[in-house]
Design a protein that fits this description.
- The structure holds two protein chains of two kinds.
- Chain A is of the alpha+beta class.
- Chain A contains 18 helices and 31 strands.
- Chain A is 25% helix and 24% strand.
- In chain A, the strands form eight sheets. A seven-stranded mixed sheet of chain A has the order 3-5-1-14-11-12-13. A five-stranded mixed sheet of chain A has the order 9-17-16-15-10, with helices on both faces. A five-stranded mixed sheet of chain A has the order 18-19-27-28-31, with helices on both faces.
- Helices cover 31% and strands 21% of the residues of chain B.
- Chain B is globular, with a radius of gyration of 19 Å.
- Chain B starts with a strand and ends with a helix.
- The chains are: A alpha+beta, B alpha+beta.
- The interface between A and B is large, with 41 and 36 residues.
- The complex binds flavin-adenine dinucleotide (FAD) and iron/sulfur cluster.
Chain lengths: 772, 328
Amino acid sequence: MSKLQNAIVGGVRTAMGYVPGNWLPGGTPDPLIERRVTLGTQQSRVDGPDKVRGAAHFAAEVPMEGLLYAACVHSTIPRGRITELDVAAAETAPGVALVMTHRNAPKMAVPPPIGLTNLKAAGNNILPVMQDAEIRWNGQTVAVVLAETQEQADLAASLIKVGYEAAVARTRFEKAKADARTPDSLMIEKNRLKKGDVAVALQAAARSVDAIYRTPWHNHTPIEPNAATIAWKGDRLTVHDATQMLNGTAGSLAKVFGIKESQVYVSSPFVGGGFGGKALWDHQILGAAAAKLAGRPVRIALSRASMVRLIGGRSPTEQRVALAAAADGRLKGLLHHGFSVKPPHSACDEAFTLTSRSLYASESFDVVQHTIDLDVLANTFMRAPGEAPGTFALESAMDELAHELGMDPIELRRRNVPDRNPVSGAPHSQSDVMLAYDLGAKRFGWDRRAAAPRSRREGEWLIGMGCATGSFPYARMPGMTVRITLDGSGHATVSSAAHEMGMGTATVQRQHTADRLGLPLESVTVTIGDTSLPFGSFAGGSSQTASLGAAINAASGKLAVELLRLAGNDTPLAGLRPAEIEFVNGGLRKIGEPSRYESFVSILKRAARDQISVTGVSSAPLEMLKFSMHSRSAIFCELLVSDVTGEVRVDRLVGCFDCGRILNPKTAASQFRGGMIMGIGMALTEEALFDERTGRVMSASIADYHVPAHLDVPDIDILWTDIPDPRTPMGARGIGEIGITGVAAAIANAAFNATGKRVRELPLTPDKFLFA
Amino acid sequence: MRSFDYRRAADRTEALSIAGEGRARYLGGGTNLVDLMRQNIEAPAALVDVSRLPDSIEETPTGGLIIGAAVSNSVVAVHPAVRTQYPMLSRALLAGASAQIRNMATIGGNILQRTRCAYFYDVAGSRCNKREPGAGCDAIDGHNRYHAIFGASERCIATHPSDMCVALAALDATVHLLGPGGEREVRLLDFHRLPGEHPEIETVLRPGELITAIELDPSAAAANSRYRKVRDRSSYAFALVSVAAGLEVVGGRIEDVRIALGGVAAKPWRAVRAEGLLRGQAPTRARFLEAADAELAAAKSFHGNAFKVELAKRTVAAVLGELTGADA
Ligand SMILES: Cc1cc2nc3c(=O)[nH]c(=O)nc-3n(C[C@H](O)[C@H](O)[C@H](O)COP(=O)(O)OP(=O)(O)OC[C@H]3O[C@@H](n4cnc5c(N)ncnc54)[C@H](O)[C@@H]3O)c2cc1C
Ligand code: SF4
């Protein structure tokens, strides 16, 4: 059984205090789906003004007295031992307060891995941190220098001399494939899926395709590099961090330093982009250790170069997809195999075969993936881990099949979209990818596409159109907790250790709370971003909105109970049970009997209370077990490829998303658009230059690691089906990650339509189109 | 970065005399030198800021242009005479870096910018003969997508990354220098050196010498010219291959032709051979391809940049085609 299944089943058996009945299996849909006031309306981000004014302090900007600045020295070999470590020059360099190496670093435990079972763990690279002379990857920190200024620390770090005794390292993907492992499970699924006989289907098929697709290493390049400002007071540790796992980071640091979780305070009110790269890595641990040794607070703000050494990226993948189809396009067999890198010290699957298990109805399936063990920094999650590379392979293959069949690619998908999960048989909670295709195709003008490649040209520029499906599973995390405090003036404050990475968490949950409690927006404040607040699960897996939504809903139920109790008998509400009342106009009212109403202000006043507080918890996500729950998208691309140089220029992108109800068109469109821009990068430019001789990442700056520039990003048109998912809070599914999925395939498919050349290896750089 | 002295020179004489005092380097916009200092690749004891010397763009008596070394890349790019008489130069400048960097960058600094080879930049972890003579070259068997196909040596295969210099090479610009020994002029084509045994010596500039200006001669080919840069993303990336070309056609025959390639060598690569084959010929697509082929015949590629040979051929032919209206 996989970890998440364990977690869910375990969670159900144990302590779920309050399980809201409605959207769970067998229950009724969340009433807010019908009763929306501010949800669904365009709202600007509440954190916007502070960010624009520069008043929002990010982790590397938090002011602190007596701060020391840290610089890291990284190993230059992938495997071996430190034999010489000369820090004398650094120690006497101007401004230097401390040089920390494995010789003087405090004793620290290995950080606990990020897991779906333990939300108090956020470790990514599960190895000892500066505890011995062993080198385990190229870029490992071998010394940390603390100085009065960053410049002094950087200079001193450059004076440290390190000698190594090199050992044989595994750094070559191709070579390591021979020793690949086959894990039992992938996220929430069993890894190996065999249904029917794909080999036979491939032999008997009217048409088939069978090809290898490759995606490279990707590095995290958020606008805010990873950073932390750290201080100890006695045994109490304060970390101003850039994190998407507040409680996970606190829990992990407690384990590492052998203190109680309550002794660690982590604050991260603003994060300049997470995408999976902002959990616990070595730098927070090293910063805290150095602060302890030096007896002074420390700021450790990673340079872009240090980021590629210390913050893991998306694993490369090599994927084989084979599809067997009948003459009418119906799939007889679907095979998806492949390899990605996941060393034993990594906690993160790159589950690129997951989409292939649910997107299409096929008579037979053969799906399995293998992991390669290299001596590298642990890979990690990056926006739509698994689905981003997986949809590139699967959706390229579908396009190849459509071409083989001489069938319109949308029609091919229409013939294969299942009405329930094709493997488990579970019903969809809501799914209408073909509506997304229809709406998107209309907006895009798909009917103007010429099916034959190389049909359209303007001068040297070949013009092509392509489409692909994007996909991301729904997730809701159990355990997410909120407190709602209602004060005597009828103002509600919602608080939780949740995360704001720029996606609009507080903005949308403020809308949600206002609608849930029948309050105007102005009467709601949302406070998030530090571990003094009620427990928050991570901002990952596009789960935070649903998890917070569930917790707020649970809390609102408790609030109703509490208010009815306080109201007592001297009220129009007397004698009513919670199920009979609703929140409306800043008060409670009997459903169907508007005269029986009392406002919050009046109830609190009569009870002589300044405020009341309740907490609610996101329950076990039973809906995920019972239903097949996925968001899907239809991505369309029109582009130009130079017939001379092979340069690809994306001219237009349309994305139509089937993600349940959209809660705020403004923040949602930004999420989708941002994801699609990342998809352009994945398709055209992004590739970490990993030197297989040394295991060293050579693209150590953003001049070398190409994210899209403005000119790479065309008009992007976003639309959505906006059909509520009756099994989720507010009828919404997460939208943070799906934007990137399908984009690389849509672009590659359009490039094929333009040129007749099928490029199966990302990124689609000019050289790949030069030779026919 | 090591700490250093900073002085701003009021005029050229002062710049020279401060520079003469010790291990000083001239500072233009600092967009390359300061980066290199931060990476500990360069560690000058002092910087003499020459970015605010009172330089300008003037017409020469022969109708050419003399552009002061401190003029910014942006100002040169939009200068009316540059745009109309030397369009390839304007376009090359605009194809470089970003608007912010072009605003800071000077002409002198652009000429002297150093390679972007990733191993050159990796002071701690990679071997590089250019940084440390005799250490070895990690690029030869490593990532060398951006590296040279012309004029490389066993010591170094790096390219010069400037776009502007490619146009200057095609225009046969003259570099004006002022040194302790007085003034002199060097053709831009002779200014940068191929690596040979000494990749650490990149130009013919002598110690303490200051670039004061570049001079352009007018020509019909200069006025009918283009620059095309092929790169991995639409902007803000260095050239895989670039082509600066100018063409004068008289009576159906090529009277004058200038072709230079960027991204292919440690210096802007003047395509002398192709030019020779084209002069006097009719401007047809077949001839352009033939000439490009002949030029590229001498190319020697590495495992990561073999595509550049084909890419350069096609780009040369396409740019010449655009200049004559012949279809690419
Ligand atoms: C992210 C990035 C992207 C870039 N992309 C491109 C690109 O696509 N194409 C391109 O062509 N360039 C590109 N550049 C490079 C840019 O063009 C150069 O950095 C710039 O032209 C250098 O000019 P500067 O005045 O800032 O030089 P500085 O950094 O000040 O100096 C560079 C060198 O010139 C010397 N120097 C300066 N002035 C004189 C003088 N008058 N006499 C003698 N020596 C002098 C300095 O001592 C130093 O050695 C890019 C740079 C960056 C940072
Ligand atoms: S190519 Fe030149 S600059 Fe690059 S590593 Fe080799 S010697 Fe150094």
